[in-house]
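Memo to structure team: turn this sequence into structure tokens by end of day. - J.P.
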Amino acid sequence: MKALFLRSLLVAVLVGPAINIVGTLALFHRGVKYDPPVSETEFHQMGNMTLNEMDAALAKRRIKMTRWDWLRESVPYSYFWKQVARDAIVPACGVFLACAWVGWVEKRRMPKGI
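Reply from structure team:
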């Protein structure tokens, strides 16, 4: 039973984050970055603007990013990996429970002599 638990845990740790990363990349459509980035003072000044005014002010600095550009720029930062780890909890738990259940069912079906 201990071996089943460890194998299920190993598969969950490897497959859970992979499911999350693939899902994130598949659902990512278009990213936008601003060059130069919005400073804190500009951000506070924009709090008094309407949405149309803010969009017009940022339109000159807006750069559209592809999925791969976004991924290439995000990977070096710790916030990206923290979000991957946080979002991988549910898939990893699902994979662990599925592996444990399948292993338990298979173990019950095997004859006792083997």
